[in-house]
Design brief:
The structure is a single chain. The chain has one helix and seven strands; from the N terminus they run βαββββββ. By secondary structure, it is mainly beta.
């Protein structure tokens, strides 16, 4: 199913708020390689209350908990290519 980038970001934010596990594919800024990640939002493990030293939203990043690494990671919103939720895969169109 084809969706726009803004719809993909909206679906990710909805999943984060509900704490559902979802999959996302995007291109990493640091290496330019495609990255598949199973992640979720609503995780409190390791949160100290200090916050980050920068605002991820200002860099067009979304913070999620990576289920495989067991740590928080960022999704580059500019390069999302695929989102999978509830067994449905959404392909992000460029237009």
């Amino acid at each position: 199913m084809q969706i726009t980038l803004s719809e993909a970001i909206e679906k990710i934010e909805e999943a984060k708020e509900s704490g559902r596990v979802f999959g996302v594919t995007f291109v990493k800024r640091t290496t330019g390689l495609e990255r598949d990640m199973n992640c979720r939002g609503g995780v409190k493990k390791g949160v100290t209350g200090q916050g980050m030293k920068y605002d991820p939203a200002s860099r067009n990043l979304v913070t999620v908990f990576d289920m495989h690494k067991g740590e928080f990671r960022h999704i580059n919103c500019d390069t999302i290519t695929r989102v999978t939720m509830n067994g449905v895969t959404f392909t992000v169109s460029n237009g």
